[in-house]
Amino acid sequence: MAEAETEPIELSQFLCDHFQSVANKIADxxxxxxxxxxxxxxxxVLLGLGIGVMTAMMSPSAISLYKAAVSDSxxxxxxxxxxxxxxxxxxxxxxxxxxxxxxxxxxxxxxxxALVARRFVAMLRGDLLLEVVFxxxxxxxxxxxxxxxxxxVATLLRGACPTGRLxxxxxxx
Length: 173
What we know:
Distance between the termini: 59 Å
Number of helices: 7
Largest sheet: none
Shape: elongated
CATH class: Mainly Alpha
CATH topology: Tetracycline Repressor, domain 2
Low-confidence stretches: 164-173
Number of strands: 0
Mean pLDDT: 80
Number of domains: 1
């Protein structure tokens, strides 16, 4: 029996709004910290994006949101779609912008910057996210995130840079 002052809510819409709000807050915080590219080297810009995206996706709130979105995606499709659109998709769109700029500058040779951005985020996520989600390990610390992001950037640029223009990144711990 409901209390007199309570109002019923549509759970699906409530979850959709909540996922959108939380994903937006995480993405806003992450993307606000990442300045627009001016003349910085591409590897430094991608490293900054990679560290920012990984730090956000490994945060406790993002892990909880990810678990909820995945576990209830069949029942609450709109909520899962909101998580995707306002979280990972926003990060991929920002990375895509950087890659399109780099392509215009002749720094990389890729046909589909959106696809490369998705693959970049997938490499950042890798098995680390699953290990954290399943409780097999703690979220990586800042040094681990930095080293992992450097490795992903180096791998990405090795495949995307025109011959002879790749600068080797040194992974330091």
